[in-house]
Amino acid sequence: MVITANNCEDKSSELGFKLARHAYSSTVVPEYPACLELCLDDAKCHSINFDLSSGNCDFNNASKAAVMHGDFVKDSNTIFSDIVGRETKGGWTLIKQLQNTPSILLTGAVNKGHPSMAPTYTDDYKDLSKYRNNSLFLSVTGLKKLREDMGFDEVRFYCYKKKVGKVIHIKTNKDSLGEAVVKFYTVNAIFPKACGSFTILPDDTSELSRRCNDWGCPGILRNGGIRHLRMRIACMYTQR
């Protein structure tokens, strides 16, 4: 699972297409989010093609809108992502990446058999550079400070489950319901309503994102008492 925050730039993704003849560089990465993050870190990169089978990541020097129609072609194995607002200051900031994470990390339970899984919380958002550390989480205080300094107004969730080949990819809306979700992560707020608070992005192939009425976190506090990102990821949005 990958969680990012945005203050200006946006991204549009399409499954089953790629931009041909515009790659200036390529590399192999383990998963789509890594390809996306490398592009976001490179000012020359305006879009990517990510091959789901090989992990090949193409960095393109143009967006879909800037090329001839014939250069945007079908490829069932590829995710194409267009970086919108590349010329503006800002972009998606990676907050957390979890890989092969047992559910025990997400529920907040203590795994006595695996003490290395015990979570650590940090109030310093400079520790975001350690996003691959499964046991390190930015606290609500840290997220609040990040928002104050960066001014982000959206949160995006991406999760790819390789075993079933499904992608969850949603982004909070820029309205009162979406703002309630952002506040949920940055202040000691109540659990937000799920339905109507997010947009399903084009490369989302999951059933979960289309069943927001079934979201919840049975047995976990529903009164805003859960303060840490780790447990908030697990519960997503509890109220229906």
UniProtKB/TrEMBL annotation:
Q: What is the lineage of its organism?
A: Eukaryota, Metazoa, Cnidaria, Anthozoa, Hexacorallia
In terms of InterPro entries, this protein maps to: Pan_app (IPR003609)
This chain's protein is named: Apple domain-containing protein
Which Pfam families does the record match to this protein? PAN_1
* Superkingdom as given in the UniProt entry: Eukaryota
Q: Where is the Apple domain?
A: 8-84
